[in-house]
Amino acid sequence: MIVTGVAAPFMVPFKLTLMVAVAITIPYTLYQLWSFVVPGLYPLERKL
User: For 35, phi and psi rounded to 5 degrees?
Assistant: First the structure.
C-alpha cells in the first residue's frame, strides 16, 4: 500500500467500513421504503 498523504492510512479502513455498512443496510432500507409505500397503492398497482 502506497501512502500518498497524511490521512490516507486512516481513510482506507474508514471507506471500506462505510462501503460494507451501506451494502449491508441497503436491503433493509429498501424493505422499509416499500413497507411505507405499499399501503398507499391500489391493488392493481401492487401487482407490478
Answer: -65, -30
Residues contacting 10, CB < 8 A, separation 6+ = none
pTM: 0.68
CA distances from 31 to 9, 39, 40, 46 (A): 35, 13, 15, 14
Contact 38/46 with Cβ under 8 angstroms? yes
pLDDT tens digits along 6-33: 888 889 899 999 999 999 999 999 999 9
Q: Of 1, 27, 29, whose CA–CA distance to 15 is shortest?
A: 1
